[in-house]
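User: Predict the structure for this protein chain, please.
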Amino acid sequence: MKWDWNAVSEFMPHFWDGLLVTLQALALGSLLSFTLGLVWALLTRTPSRWVRWPVGVVTEFVRNTPLLVQLFFLFYVLPEWGLTFSALATGVLAIGLHYSTYTMQVYRAGIEAVPAGQWEAATALNLPLRRTWTAVILPQAVRRVVPALGNYVIAMLKDTPMLMVITVLEMLGRARLFSQQHFQFTEPLTVIGVAFVLISYLASLLLRALERRLVR
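Assistant: Here is the predicted structure, written as structure tokens:
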């Protein structure tokens, strides 16, 4: 089969539109997953079992159900309860919520890796609990978990094509629509594959640079 450069040039405007949507979903989904994951991790350390137990049930349920099922539920079921979001907002919510249950475990491991002496020093200095967390524990924990969090960013990138099932036209959605309209499949799908590789590689480089900066 001959490579058609005209098909590539025709597809590129659609690709840029899809790339913008993909990056938006990735950035917002990552921010949501990192924030919620930290909230879950802190709540699981509260002394009250009435807080720990519901958080544990919810996070286990979300972690052990497929992201695709959660996308369908949020997009098609929530409107029946009066909660309606745009397709992109629903996708961001699903990705962020789903991966927050994984980042929660990363944060928890990072917190537990902080030496006990740090807690004892904060107690000896009579630091308030909030100050202990924000100034002593979390800065050390976050430095330890950056590589693991970075892996989940790349995993979220690879899951963005699932948003196509709720009508979000990210990169693969744009390629699929273009292919169906022009009967050209090889060129757009190849462009998308190369784009995912390049974005993943660039993201890994940025994360390594961030890790080196944090460990100084």
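The mean pLDDT is 89.
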